[in-house]
Each structure stands twice: as C-alpha cells, then as structure tokens.
Amino acid sequence: MDHFLYRDGALYAEDVPISEIAAAVGTPFYVYSTATLLRHFQLFDDALDGTDHLVCYAMKAASNQAILKTLAQAGAGMDVVSGGEYMRAKAAGVPGDKIVFSGVGKTADEICTALTGGIRQFNVESEPEMEVINAVALELGVVAPITVRVNPDVDAKTHAKIATGKSENKFGIPIARASEVYAHAASLPGLEVIGIDVHIGSQLTELEPFELAYNKVAELTERLRAEGHNIRRLDLGGGLGIPYARSNDAPPLPVEYGAMIKKTLGHLGCEIEIEPGRLIAGNAGLMVSKVIYVKSGEDRDFLILDGAMNDLIRPAMYEAYHDIIAVQEPAPGVEQQPYDIVGPVCESGDTFAKQRNMPPLVPGDLVAFRSAGAYGAVMSSEYNTRPLIPEVLVHGDQFAVIRERPTFDEMINRDTIPEWL
C-alpha cells in the first residue's frame, strides 16, 4: 500500500496534488510519502514483535537525510555500506550504536571513522578485512564489535546482478569455513565477536530461500556456541521484494517474513537485526516526468519524456519494470494505445518501456513512475550534463524540497581548468 492515489481525476501524494509540486519545482522530480515510509517501517517492526530486535534501514536504497531522519525518529537503525553513508547517517542524527557497517571493501579510514564516531557492529566480509579492523582498533585503543558474514550458497532466485548468497558471489566467507574464520577472529585482541551476518540478495519474492539460509544460520549458531563463541546477535540482512507491476503476484508480507524468522531462529535467544531497504522506500516514492514530444515512427509511437536513464537507471541497468501512469486520471473507458516510453539521452538504452499501453497523451502532460523510491535518486547521475533532479518529501498537506536541482553554472563550475590551458 502507498499514499499515491487519484482524487477527483488528479494524482495526489498524500494530501498534495502532484501537479502542484510540478508547478513549484519543475520536472522531472522524485517525491516521497512520509506516511508510506513510516507505515512500511512499522510493518517490519511489528513483524518482529516479541523478539529482541532492531530494524536497520538499508540506506543505500534512498539516503536523503530527510528520509533517514524520518525513519530514525520512528526507531530505525541504519545499515551503511560506505564511509559517506556512515557520515550521512550521523548527520541525520542517528547514534553510532544504531549503525551497522556492511560492505566488502571497507577501508582503514572508513573503519577509523566508524570506531571514532561509534558503531553498533561491523559485518566483516573477509579475513583480510578482519585483520585491518583489528589493527585500526588496537591503534585507537578500542575493541571493535563484529559479526562475520557467511555465504550460505543459497540461490535467492532473483536477478543475477542483485544475488549475493551463492558461492560464486563476492560476498562473505563460505559457511563451510566458518569455524576456522571465527577461531581466527577470536584470537585477535582488537575484535569482539558478537554474532553472525547473512544476506542472500535483493528483490526476493519467495520465503523459501530465506528459510533455507536461516536454517543454516541456526545450525551454525549452535556449532559456534559449542566451540566457545558467544553468539548473541543474528544480522539477517534484507532483500524482501516489492511488486513493481500492479498485476504481479504480491511478494510475502513482512508479517509472514517475521513469522518465518521466529520459526527458524526464535529458539536461539539471539537479538535479531534485519536490514530492509527496498520494501521501506520503494513504493514510498514516485518519479514524475513531463511529455516533451509524441513522435510517430514507422511501426510505433514514442513518448519522449524530460526524465531519462540518468534520473532512473533501473530499466536500463536491470531491465526493470515500473508501472507508469498519467498524473491526470484517464476518463473511464478511454481507449489506450501502445507507446515506447523513452528519455532524451543519446543512448538506445534510454528506454523505460516498450509498447506500454497508455491513454493518449500530448506534450506537457505529466506521467508518474511508481515504485521509484528505492534505487532511483541514489543511483542517478549527471550524464549528458543533465542536473540531478529534485527530491521532494510530502507530509500530509505539506511538501518540502529536500534536494534542490543544481544550476548549470553550479555543475560546470565544479570543473577546474589546469593552468597550462
């Protein structure tokens, strides 16, 4: 469920007409619903009710500080994967003891920043990384809390580019080597082993892969405890998918996911961490764009928008599907027609949809890309010297620009010309 609905023939974000935002900030732009963000976070928090747990929002999905602050005030922790994300979370007021640091390539500087500013734990991905965390911690005179990410070799049944739990993926250590790696970690004086981390991929639409992985984690927990390790926290990652097409079967609900976690791991008495990102932010955001031209080709018609692949790269990168709707609600029974929906960037890949049925549209009409709140603005670029598009947050009948569109002068003046030119 989201809070983007038609009223009297016009699309609204909560209590604000989309057309009103477009008139104020121009197109294209991203718009997020506070009510949807909070509802989705609460669904996960409620799903783990009765357990010792923390829902850590995976902020790589959408990392604007206004979004982070909204979720942090509701009780969310944060899952970060870079020093920049760590600093962004801190800037949004998230305390260090609610920040989990994941990612395969943490540098010594990033580790130092987190240990100095406070960290809940590092999710360690490799033995070389373990050695670096230990060295930095000893230099600072502190002890670093860690979990070790294990790779359970489970097929997440998702897109190859977002699968992370198979043996050929770069993430984690093979679960078969866990005893050896944990013994080594326990021997390092700058580390405190507190738990296990696992994350098998993103946009999962079935519970079975999670259950297979979590059963392996349960067995590993008991084995490591028997080997003398105080395993008291299980970080289960994120990955629960969302329906990008309204016609698709809905993925499992957070309450079903929570029940499965309790069934597979509840008997261990561990604190549970989960790291949802897409399901919290995805359906909480739209990208709104304007039709520039309607072009007739030899065998098809094109809607050419002012939004492009640099603004929303998922269709070009992942062949991802987004529902695209007219901001002005079509009249009942209006005949739809197929269009290729494209942007103005000079790439054939700048195509959002092919032969998508839409109501007849004309230049100046607005369209909205649903489920664009996750991996939209955060993956955008200034390719073709196109400005990053504004982000807008709606709260009831109010809206605020939470990232402004840069001017061309601001973009161009970032360049520095060498003195010999």
TrEMBL record:
<feature type="binding site">
    <location>
        <position position="318"/>
    </location>
    <ligand>
        <name>substrate</name>
    </ligand>
</feature>
<feature type="binding site">
    <location>
        <position position="278"/>
    </location>
    <ligand>
        <name>substrate</name>
    </ligand>
</feature>
<dbReference type="InterPro" id="IPR029066">
    <property type="entry name" value="PLP-binding_barrel"/>
</dbReference>
<dbReference type="InterPro" id="IPR009006">
    <property type="entry name" value="Ala_racemase/Decarboxylase_C"/>
</dbReference>
<dbReference type="InterPro" id="IPR022643">
    <property type="entry name" value="De-COase2_C"/>
</dbReference>
<comment type="similarity">
    <text>Belongs to the Orn/Lys/Arg decarboxylase class-II family. LysA subfamily.</text>
</comment>
<dbReference type="GO" id="GO:0008836">
    <property type="term" value="F:diaminopimelate decarboxylase activity"/>
</dbReference>
<dbReference type="InterPro" id="IPR022644">
    <property type="entry name" value="De-COase2_N"/>
</dbReference>
<feature type="binding site">
    <location>
        <position position="239"/>
    </location>
    <ligand>
        <name>pyridoxal 5'-phosphate</name>
    </ligand>
</feature>
<comment type="subunit">
    <text>Homodimer.</text>
</comment>
<feature type="binding site">
    <location>
        <position position="347"/>
    </location>
    <ligand>
        <name>substrate</name>
    </ligand>
</feature>
<keyword id="KW-0210">Decarboxylase</keyword>
<feature type="active site" description="Proton donor">
    <location>
        <position position="346"/>
    </location>
</feature>
<dbReference type="GO" id="GO:0030170">
    <property type="term" value="F:pyridoxal phosphate binding"/>
</dbReference>
<feature type="binding site">
    <location>
        <position position="375"/>
    </location>
    <ligand>
        <name>substrate</name>
    </ligand>
</feature>
<keyword id="KW-0457">Lysine biosynthesis</keyword>
<comment type="pathway">
    <text>Amino-acid biosynthesis; L-lysine biosynthesis via DAP pathway; L-lysine from DL-2,6-diaminopimelate: step 1/1.</text>
</comment>
<keyword id="KW-0028">Amino-acid biosynthesis</keyword>
<dbReference type="InterPro" id="IPR002986">
    <property type="entry name" value="DAP_deCOOHase_LysA"/>
</dbReference>
<protein>
    <recommendedName>
        <fullName>Diaminopimelate decarboxylase</fullName>
        <ecNumber>4.1.1.20</ecNumber>
    </recommendedName>
</protein>
<feature type="binding site">
    <location>
        <position position="314"/>
    </location>
    <ligand>
        <name>substrate</name>
    </ligand>
</feature>
<keyword id="KW-0663">Pyridoxal phosphate</keyword>
<comment type="function">
    <text>Specifically catalyzes the decarboxylation of meso-diaminopimelate (meso-DAP) to L-lysine.</text>
</comment>
<dbReference type="GO" id="GO:0009089">
    <property type="term" value="P:lysine biosynthetic process via diaminopimelate"/>
</dbReference>
<dbReference type="InterPro" id="IPR000183">
    <property type="entry name" value="Orn/DAP/Arg_de-COase"/>
</dbReference>
<feature type="modified residue" description="N6-(pyridoxal phosphate)lysine">
    <location>
        <position position="60"/>
    </location>
</feature>
<keyword id="KW-0456">Lyase</keyword>
<dbReference type="InterPro" id="IPR022657">
    <property type="entry name" value="De-COase2_CS"/>
</dbReference>
<feature type="domain" description="Orn/DAP/Arg decarboxylase 2 N-terminal">
    <location>
        <begin position="36"/>
        <end position="281"/>
    </location>
</feature>
<feature type="binding site">
    <location>
        <begin position="275"/>
        <end position="278"/>
    </location>
    <ligand>
        <name>pyridoxal 5'-phosphate</name>
    </ligand>
</feature>
<feature type="domain" description="Orn/DAP/Arg decarboxylase 2 C-terminal">
    <location>
        <begin position="29"/>
        <end position="373"/>
    </location>
</feature>
<dbReference type="Pfam" id="PF02784">
    <property type="entry name" value="Orn_Arg_deC_N"/>
</dbReference>
<dbReference type="Pfam" id="PF00278">
    <property type="entry name" value="Orn_DAP_Arg_deC"/>
</dbReference>
<feature type="binding site">
    <location>
        <position position="375"/>
    </location>
    <ligand>
        <name>pyridoxal 5'-phosphate</name>
    </ligand>
</feature>
